[in-house]
Amino acid sequence: MNTRALGNQGLRVSELGLGCMGMSWAYGAPGNEEESISVIHRATELGIDFFDTAEIYGPFTNEVLVGKALRDRRERVVIATKFGFDIGEDGMRRGLNSSPENVRRACDASLARLGVDQIDLFYQHRLDRSVPIEETVGAMAELVRDGKVRYLGLSEVGAETLRRAHAVHPITALQSEYSLWERGIEDEILPTLRELGIGMVPYCPLGRGFLTGQIKRPEDIPENDYRRTDPRFQGENFMKNLDVVRAVEEIAREKGTTPAGIALAWLLHQGDDIVPIPGTKHLRHLEENAASVTIALTADDLARLDMLGEPGAIAGERYGEMGMKAIDR
Question: Which residue is catalytic, options 27, 57, 151, 178?
């Protein structure tokens, strides 16, 4: 697998990363620890060296899992984690908190859970509007100077916030949702990233699994899975969005590959500064996703796929009301 420069600060990672959230949280029951560790180990064998986690995943348990899985190969991997919530000792989330004090506390706690001396890429998970971004990034920059963090990132912030943050300390990467069914960053945010030399890390590049074609009915989603409340997976929205999946499946058949492979290949073709982090807790899906780096799409293929994400083609917001309020646009 090839590598890509993530931003212009010197960080290089595999062209595809691995999102580890679903191994511990959100998508139904947590995965089996042994299988999850096997997935992470297999990812490194396939050339994937970029692993994404966060304090909120679990909470806390995903960082422990990722640290355990990568302990014997630490020098060969890039570990990214995220902070930004006020989380009690009982694991209850009490809102956002990006105060300088919480930045330092969260970093030390993540270092301990991961079992590492330095975090490679430390993101603010969501913008805390009660704390000026300059103060938050200033505290993050102190962590770089202290050697606890190598590079800084933000997640789901808009162009103005990016500029203000980048003026305090170079931002290496922005993590935001970006896929064939969520292209809201293209008009303003992606050009700003390229102007400033910031890399793009798309999360949910498979539309929370919808673009894989494996979810045919709302009932296919486990009872304790947060997608049960996702607006795009509800009623008429679900049925309309199936049209997009069918179109991706058609192109996948023509190419002799999987719908997931096509969706990831489309993202990889959007620029060498883009590094998707599809998540999975299953070996088969990992290997299918990794194969996407070998899929060549023609100009005609790309044009057909581009049409799927045009305004009005996707039904429903990508989060519920509270989730959308947490996005800085």
Answer: 57
